[in-house]
Design goal:
This is Ribosome-associated translation inhibitor RaiA. This protein has 120 residues and is an alpha+beta fold. Helix content is 37%, strand content 27%.
Length: 120
Amino acid sequence: MQVQVHAGDNVQGGESLAQWAQTEVQDRLSRFREYVTRVEVYLTDVDALKNGGKGKRCVMETRATGRQPLAVNAEAEKVAEAFNAALEKLHRALNTDIAKMRDKSNRDTIRTGSEQDSEA
């Protein structure tokens, strides 16, 4: 699983932030390793604290084999809080997406199995 971290100009942390984010994503989503090919993480400063809102945003997008991309986002006062909230949302979204691919007997459905099409 490839993890790419993009931080906005107003987000501090540099390479250590990117390394931390990559490790957290790989650890938390390790069970989806065969399913997810790439995760992109976008960390930005939304400058909303001036208006009483939250100041940091994290957007995560996954690319999964044979599926449409999934994207989630979260906002919080701190980068780590926004990141962790988005990672939790992404974990739930991947669980849901995989469940849709499986039937009650834990087999691939005919809608996702290109192997089944080639066997016929």
